[in-house]
Amino acid sequence: MDCDLLITGDLLIDPLSGFKGRGQIAISNKRIVAFEPDATSWNARQVLDTTGQIVCPGLVDLHVHAYEWVTNFGLPADDAGIHSGATTIVDQGSAGAWTVGGFKGHIADHAKTDVRSFVSANLAGALQGGMEGTTLHSPEMTRVDEIVRVANQYPDFVKGIKSHAESGGLSHWGTTVLEMALAAANQADLPIYVHTGELFPVNEATRPATETVLKEAVSLLRPGDTLAHVYSAMPDGIMGQSQSIPASVFQALEKGIHFDIGYGLNFSYAIASRMLEAGILPHTISSDVHADFNSYHDDNKLDYSLCGVMTRLWGLGMSLQDVIARTTYHPAQLLREENEIGTLAVGSRADITILNLEHGPWTLSDGQAETLSVNQRLIPAWVIRAGELIEPNRRLLRDVCHSPLTSGTG
Ligand SMILES: [Zn+2]
What gap in Å lies between CA 66 and CA 95, rounded to an integer? Predict the structure, then answer.
C-alpha cells in the first residue's frame, strides 16, 4: 500500500488507546491511515525512523499568549506552537470579542500551528497583561451578547471563554464578571477557563480573605470548566500558602471541575509535590508562555516551555503516560476535538510530536527559584502538522535546550 509518510519507532504512546510500545504510523492526505504494532510493508514516499525517541499525538498547549503586536506580551504563534513541539495552541484571553476577528485573520490563519482562542470575557482582551486590569476587565467592559456573537461566528476557532477569580477583580466588583462569563458560556455552550492568583490591582479596603477566592469560584463553576495555575504559590490561589489542602480543592474535584497547570511565573515545586502526594493530578498540563508583561514584544526573558513543564512534572513523579495524556488527549477533549487531534487513532488528523528523550542530570528551577534535579528531559525533535514533517527551531525552549543546560550539568 502507498502512503505519504511512514513513521517507525520503538516507543509510540497513545493515551486514548493505552498503546505504548513499538509500532508504526502511516500518513496519507494529512490523515493517519494506519497505526499498527507490526511492521506491515508500506510503499512510503518518506520514512522517518524514530528509534530511541518518543512518538505521541501532537502536543496541545492549552494556555499560551500569541496575539503578537496587539497585546504587549504576545509570542509569535509558531514559536509557541510547532517550534516548541505543540501542533495545537490555545490562546487564553489575549483576544476579546472586539479583537478576536483580528487574532484569527492576522495571526491564526497565517500560522502553521493550529491556533485556537478562549476569548476573554472582556471586550478588548488582555491588551497589557495584568496591567490596567481594573479598567480593561471591569463589568463595564464585559458584554455577554458580544461573547455569544463571536462564539457563534467562529465555532471552530473560539473554543471557550477566559475569565478570572483573583483578589483584584473580587475587591472591585465581586464575582460580577465571572458570572457574566458564565452566562455567556451557558448561552454559547462553551467551557470556561479561570485564572487564579492575584493579578489585577487590589482595592485594599475590600480585599477578600485569601481562602474565600477559591470558594467563590468553585461555587460558581460547572463540571468541565477549568481552574488554572493549580500548583501556583499565589496566596489567593488554589493551594494558597496552606500546608494542608483546602476543602475547596476537594469540592472542586468532586464537582467535576478540571485543574490545569498553566505553569507561568508562579509555579511552585513545593506546592506541586504536596498536591501530587495527595493524588491531585492536573487534568491538563499547559505552559502559559508569554513575552514580558512589562515591555513591548520582548520574549528574551522567557525561561519556561511546555516541554520544560512536562519534564518537570515527570521529574516530580508523574508517569510519562500521565504527562503525555495531559498534553494530548485531555486538552483535545476540552476542545471537543478528541476525534481529530490528541490521538493517534486511524482517521484522525496527522498531527504528531516526536520527542527526544535525553539523559541528564540537569537542574531546573521554578518560578520561586526552587530547584529540581531531573535525570531525563523531553525535547521536541519533529512535529508532523497535518501530514507535513517539520523540524522545530526550539527558539523558546531555553529551559530545556539552551545554556547552561546543554552542558549536561546545569
Ligand atoms: Zn496566561
Answer: 9
Residue 245 in contact with residue 279, Cβ under 8 Å?
Answer: no
CA of 2 to the centre of ligand 1 (A): 43
Is 301 exposed, middle or buried, given 0-12, 13-18 or 19+ CB atoms closer than 10 A? Answer: exposed
Residue 145 domain-assigned (yes or no): yes
C-alpha 279 to ligand 1 mean position (Å):
25
Q: Is the domain of 24 the same as that of 129?
A: no
Q: Are residues 205 and 260 in the same domain?
A: yes
Residues 284-323 have pLDDT tens digits of: 999 999 999 999 999 999 999 999 999 999 999 999 999 9
Ligand 1 center to 158 CA (angstroms): 16
Predicted TM-score (pTM) of the model is: 0.97
Q: Is residue 406's pLDDT more than 60?
A: no
Q: Answer for the pair 292, 354: CB distance below 8 angstroms, yes or no.
A: no
Q: Are residues 48 and 81 in the same domain?
A: no
Give 43 Cα–ligand 1 centroid separation in angstroms: 45
Domain that holds residue 330: 58-334
Rounded distance from Cα 232 to ligand 1 centre (Å) = 13
- DSSP of 14-50, one letter per residue? ETTTTEEEEEEEEEETTEEEEEESS----EEEEEEE-
